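@channel sequence for tomorrow's demo:
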Amino acid sequence: MGDPIIYRTTHLFTGLGDEALPGSFSVENGRFASVGAYEDADALSAQSGASVVDLGDAFVCAGFHDSHLHFFHSALYASPLALHCRGKNERDCVDALAPLAARRPGTGWLLAQGWRQPHWNPPTAPSKHSLDAVYPDRPVAMYSGDAHTLWLNSKAIEELGLSDDSVAPEGGSYDRDENGRLTGIVREAAAMALMPRIVASFLTEELLDAYRGFLAKLAENGVTSVCDMSLMAAPGLDFVRDDLFAELLAREELSCRIHLFPTLLEDRSRLHDLQQNLTSDRLRACGFKQFFDGVSSQHTAWVNEPYANARFEGDCGRPTVDPSIMRDLVLAACAEGQAVRVHAIGDEAIHVILDIFEEGLDTFGPLPEGRRHCIEHLENFQPDDIGRLAKLNVVAAVQPMHITLDPGAPEADLGADRVPYMWPFASLLESGATLAFGTDSPVADIDPRAGLYTAITRKTIPGGTPPEGWVPQERIGAADALRAYTLGSACAAGRERELGTIEAGKLADFVVIDRDLASCDPELILEARIEATYVGGELVYRRP
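structure tokens (generated this afternoon):
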């Protein structure tokens, strides 16, 4: 690791400009030691004796950084332990469980994720009965694609101790039929609260293998850093498994930089302990996570005006945390100089959390250098709030693929008047805000190419519709999209001085790609191939 190596390429995107130019850089002791012109490589080699690796006309940029994913669930659903299935209809999803049942025989849980009712034909809600017909004696749990809804069979309902008289936890619900019987559909907080009991049967070594598999997938996609975000605010339900990461780090198997964001609670000691104990460049705890609303597709995102397709009078969603409690939580973190990342999708949730961040800034001053508050998802804005993020130094942690996950749904839910203020990437950049790109995996796949394509074109994948892009005035350029997936995400993690660009002194995380993503036809981005991925100058993936 200590011997210097010099790389050169005709397409070096350092992140400091908008083009990929001929250039060279050297790596020593896991960091970029120098960055210069293409022709500097030979002279530097003669001077230092370092070997030169000629990457030809490959495109080289800083490693991609997924600013928002849920590692535990991403690893689980990509492993043999569970199944990812979108399905064309209810029957299709039930049938898809067969391979999982075959490779995990016995009476244990069958766990899957990915179904999206609006995309089904017909788009009707599933029930326990279709699962019961095939799996009467084995518990089945199938989470929706957005992870906010859970579909159970009767055996699972029994195993979980639910009954027709059960009362859902605050912020969640159990669907019932006309006779008051549980249908098997569990929503929001109630669905997430059941997850620990469903996965309790998985062994530690099984989970470590799942984590190894997902780390390999990240490397194959050029992802060198991630932010592992709390899944749920209730104590013990965030699924930020520092124990598994620490074990992999101890075994020298952590091939990606991991940034942990556990839940912000009144008791803030967990983050303090993690920050004290996790000091490796590859494993850090960087701040808190909280949740202010749900999702607009379920009318649980908190909006200022009623939904266009309101289900009842005054249907504006709701905050998942009382605003006064959220204020107390966030201000307590501000007083300690800790960054907070808040899930806020609806325009009212965004507006109120900006007010709270502004109060924190006015009361306690700026956060220490390297720490930034973030808002996660930011689907729909009140127009005057778009410019407030830059003024308050708040990062917009967005997931471009969310734009096209449910075509037509934003218009139906929020109406034409609000559509121009949905995922306003270009407007945010114009205001001076920092964008940090991610996927919310397992909600969307961790492939950065899809996020880049969507942000640049605002078209669906597959299909490429509409031809001009959805809300085309909010398309952004390739260089800005690349920076959002590298430097912007480093800002969200508080590590922009160490990660996100190719500069001397920064950690040598970089990816080699077969085409110039900064200048190629956007329609060719999805065909780009990752040739190699490096973390700290160490090769962690090479395309076979």
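heads up for whoever presents: The CA atoms of residues 434 and 474 lie 15 Å apart.
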